User: Which sequence fits this backbone?
C-alpha cells in the first residue's frame, strides 16, 4: 500500500447517501407510468448499476428486469426518472460520516483523487458542489463517460493511463461488488465500505482487500501500510 498514488472513489453509497432522493424520483416515475410505487428500502437494493437498470428494476418490482418490458417503456421510465430526480434538488441526500475530513487529509498528503461513479454524469457536478467536495477530485467520471460501466475496468484503466500509474499504485474505494470487481479487473486493490448499497449482500463476500465500517479507516490503512 505504500506505493499507492491514485485513489478512485465511488459516489453513491460510498461518499454520500443518495437513496432517499433516488427513491422518491423512481417512485414518481413508475407511478406516472401506471405501475406500483417503490419504497426507499426497495431502491436501496436496486441501485448501483446505473439509472437505466434502476428504473427497470423499479418497474419490475424485482432485481430482475421483466423481459416483457419493451424499450419504449424503459426509455420513458428513464426520462421521467431523470426529470423527477433533477427536480428533487437532492435535498434528502447527505454525506456519510468523516467523508470531508478524509478527503481533505488525503488531498493534503498528495494523493491524486478521482471519482468513478455509475451515476449519470449530468447529475454529478451539482451534487459535488452542493456538498462542497468537488474541489478534491482531479477527475470526475460518470456512468456514461465510457461505453461500459463498473464492473468493467475501462474508467480505472483510463485513470491509470492518464496519470502514468501502474495498477499497484491505485486503490479503488467503494461499497458494492461492482466497485470490487472493477478493481480486480483493473488489477488494483480495493477498500470496501459496509454501509452502502450492495443489493442486500455483505460486501465482504466480494473479497475486497480491505473492509471498513467508516471511510475514516482509509487513513489508518494508508498510514499503517506506508
Assistant:
Amino acid at each position: 500500500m505504500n506505493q499507492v498514488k491514485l485513489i478512485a472513489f465511488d459516489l453513491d453509497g460510498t461518499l454520500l447517501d443518495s437513496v432517499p432522493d433516488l427513491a422518491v424520483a423512481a417512485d414518481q416515475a413508475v407511478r406516472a407510468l401506471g405501475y406500483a410505487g417503490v419504497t426507499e428500502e426497495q431502491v436501496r437494493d436496486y441501485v448501483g448499476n446505473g439509472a437505466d437498470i434502476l428504473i427497470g428494476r423499479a418497474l419490475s418490482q424485482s432485481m430482475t428486469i421483466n423481459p416483457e418490458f419493451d424499450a419504449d417503456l424503459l426509455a420513458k421510465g428513464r426520462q421521467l426518472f431523470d426529470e423527477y430526480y433533477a427536480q428533487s434538488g437532492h435535498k434528502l441526500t447527505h454525506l456519510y460520516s468523516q467523508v470531508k475530513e478524509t478527503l481533505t487529509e488525503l488531498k493534503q498528503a498528495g494523493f491524486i483523487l478521482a471519482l468513478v461513479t455509475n451515476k449519470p454524469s449530468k447529475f454529478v457536478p451539482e451534487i459535488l458542489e452542493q456538498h462542497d467536495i468537488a474541489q478534491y477530485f482531479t477527475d470526475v467520471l460518470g456512468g456514461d463517460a465510457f461505453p461500459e460501466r463498473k464492473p468493467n475496468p475501462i474508467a480505472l484503466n483510463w485513470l491509470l493511463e492518464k496519470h502514468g500509474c501502474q495498477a499497484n499504485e491505485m486503490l479503488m474505494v467503494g461499497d458494492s461488488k461492482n466497485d470490487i470487481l472493477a478493481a480486480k479487473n483493473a488489477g488494483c486493490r480495493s477498500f470496501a465500505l459496509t454501509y452502502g448499497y450492495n443489493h442486500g449482500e455483505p460486501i465482504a463476500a466480494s473479497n475486497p482487500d480491505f473492509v471498513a465500517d467508516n471511510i475514516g479507516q482509509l487513513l489508518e490503512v494508508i498510514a499503517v501500510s506506508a
Notes: The first strand starts at residue 6 and ends at 9. The beta strands are 6-9, 16-17, 94-95, 112-116, 139-141, 170-174, 189-193, 210-212. Residues 8 and 114 are 5 Å apart (CA to CA).
